[in-house]
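Sample A.
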Amino acid sequence: MRDILFLAHRVPFPPDRGDKIRAHHVLKHLAKHARVHLVAMADVEADLHHDAVLAEHCASHAVIWRSMGRAQAAATALLRRQPISIAAFAHPEYARAVQRTLAAHPIDTIFVYSGQMAQYVPAAFAGRIVMDFCDVDSAKFADYAEGASLPMAIMMRREDRLLARFEAQVAARADASLFVSEAEAALFRSRTGAARVQVIENGIDTGFFDPAAGFAGAGEAGPLIVFTGQMDYRPNVDAVIWFAREVMPLVRRSHPTARFAIVGRAPVPEVSRLASESVLVTGEVADVRGWLAAAAVVVAPLKIARGIQNKVLEAMAMARPVLASAAAAEGIDHAGTITVADTPAGYVSAIDALIAGPGDLGPAARRQVERRYGWPARLGPLDALLGLETRAAA
């Protein structure tokens, strides 16, 4: 049986945020065909205590605490003339864990999840390297620079430039560079000239996100408009602030009891301050499905969105009417089963229509997800890419 080293920037369990969801399902898929050796970082205390679950899927695993803060990462990156994203995930103990794993096991493939972790692939490694970029991280910083204050804009443009250079170097060495959508893959090719670029789309666990399972709901009176996501992530923060300030006051004119629920862990202070009679800020919840089940409309008003948005797939799987920005809808084959808007007036008009009568939109979205986005089908191309089909049949 083959041995694969899986390098991850976060522990791929539990699958409760976008980056961990994809890593979780990729790791489980690989573990069906090979011995997987995981080296991952943890940045929350709970992620140091998943040994039993990781042992179910991994032949070995090591979890390293990521201790470097943002300020230290920025200072280190400036001194070393490297991207902050790389400095933030640099850790000597992680490098030692990688070396120990390579020395102890006959690793023939290194699967790198997220670009920051490519710094740990040894220069002398002669086996197969698969780089799962997911999306074009450097381009995100170019987006951040637009409209930012001058000092921040300079830093974001620096990050874009240096990280894009790093990504191109990684892709030149990798046997394959993976992205979650053709739009992201095309953008990466245009920015780097990379040739060995493939698309492995995100999927959804339709058995877990199943409206037929029945949920008590969130128990809120009046139409409930729901946003889900990690609430210390800048694009999510900007999206909910914009929606709460620019859209909700207009919605309340025609729906006085409507409320906007911001559902997700680690809300930053500027999100917490949005809480009011019309805006709920839940913080971390035990199960996001209850909130989705209670939603009259699920919104994803992101201005910056790279790749396929799990929050949109989850709402579609729960058969909810989804209203998303063009950026959040990009890359998802929604086949007309979700509504797209980008202006306050567009959101208000769509919300009015969806609250009045969503028709078959929710059930149609569910059917589309079932047809198109089950994880086994989405990850199937990995078998041929890694030569797992032949090994599994042997």
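Sample B, a different protein:
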Amino acid sequence: MNKSIIFYIIGWILNIEAALMIFPAICALIYGEKSGFAFLITIAACLLIGLPLSLRKPKSRIFFAKEGYITVALCWMSLSIMGALPFFISGQIPNYIDALFEIISGFTTTGSSILTDVEAMDYGMLLWRSLTHWIGGMGVLVFLLAIIPMSGGESIHFMRAESPGPSVEKLVPRIRATALLLYKIYLGMTLLQIVLLLIGGMPLFDALTITFGTAGTGGFAIKNTGIADYTRYQQTVITIFMFLFGINFNVYYLLLLRKFKDAFKSEELKWYVSIVAASIFLISLNTGGPKGFFAAIHPAAFQVSSIITTTGFATVDFNYWPTFSKVILVILMFIGACAGSTGGGMKVSRIVILIKTVRHEVSSLMHKRSVRVLKIDGKKIENETIRSIHVFFVAYILIFAASLLIVSLDNQDFTTSFTAVAATLNNIGPGLETVGPMGNFSAFSNLTKTVLMFDMLAGRLEIFPMLALINLVKSKIMSHKITLTR
């Protein structure tokens, strides 16, 4: 294993984190908040570790999938461990486990929170909390590839290990150009939403933090009432952009090239739009009540866009919705957004391929001599892709079951425990009951919070990087035991 390149990348990640903390530090200075010193201390700590690691050039920059998975897992853990320090040092979140939970929830764009009164936090801390969504949305290593030249085609292993979805390909021949292009689209959409919210009369601080949460499909709100107190226009803008950030960014690339036919023939996009439309229709019918179907469309559209894209913002407490509507939301939690978007969940493309696989198997049983090829967007689905999806699905179920078993030790009700695991593993944010849109995760024990932190990282990194790291640690322990017995 090329350890030198792993430490080199971790060093750069910490340097970048130090640079990004300048923004909340300035924000704290503007509002005259003493907690801003916590950012300065953390910046110094990041640079103290990051600079020596990044200045030591690796002898070889060649790395493979194994190094890619391990590096991604270690980078996200390092980013979180250091990123939690401002909360802890300032005393805004005095328990480090809680601070770590909050920051992992931020970077993984989950949006689950342990805070009981978010409005009590300083502005600088709120900005850092929301900024982590934007940083984690597209991926910190994708950002690194965009600004630092990495020789060799092996850089694709980083992008594939960090980017959500069953497969990631280069949009243009060079990885750095691909990363830059993705961030240009990401930044452009972010700025557009900020402008539209400002036009609608939203204060600048609110527009920035809400947009960071929308772009990263994270969901950290800065008010105890979530998004409920904002105007209908502002909520509509957020609804539209949550939906847009849940679309595969390859579609936007094709639109920029004016290849409209190629962009709109995407099967995943068609399924995504259909699922959203059907869910809004059904929930509106179910929740209309005395006010009627049309009055229910606006809140239904907001919550459907929020849940399927795994953003987690809320305008209403859907704990009080009928069971039918709540079941739809739980199903959307598992489906998630499109591959190659900033959203979480299992991804629409995986669900589509699984459905096609089931149909293919049933057809094969009925017509044994027939030979059919599985296709998506007119292209053959390789057996390797199908195999990886099946492995992902099995690993997902095992992690979900194990997490639910441990979380149940806290003796919360089943709905709370089940949706807490679903909300964190799928990077949603809110669940139901105690962890609903107007609740939080503060009631859980430190053990449960640790399990849910692992779930958030596993969900954001598509499971395999975290499993690869666990396997590496296990092999090191086993080899150490063998050495001792000798």
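Observation for Sample B: Strands lie at 375-376, 379-380.
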